[in-house]
Amino acid sequence: MTTLCPSTQPAFVQALSIIEGKWKLRIIYELACKEVLRYGELKNNVCEITHKMLSSQLKELEQDGMVIRKEYPQVPPKVEYSLSDKGRRFIPILNELCSFGAEISM
User: Fold this and answer.
1) In what order do the strands lie in the sheet with 67-72?
2) Model-level pTM?
């Protein structure tokens, strides 16, 4: 078994700061499944989240380079979200989490 580094390891702390919180992993997961989602679709898929929380979590993920926000200049406004290259690099980790979840639920 591989030993893990201390939790004060800067790389671990940096990675954790990007995905910490109740909703970010769910948002990343939804975007990994559909590639491009509008705000309303994300809200429907993560139904327990409030509009304020979804908006703030998306802004943080965008600032961290995990999510791309594309706004179309039209009325009514249309905004789409997708994973950036950095966000797509996280998909194998999501797959491992899903595998782990399947194993422990047996």
Assistant:
1) 36-38, 78-83, 67-72
2) 0.86
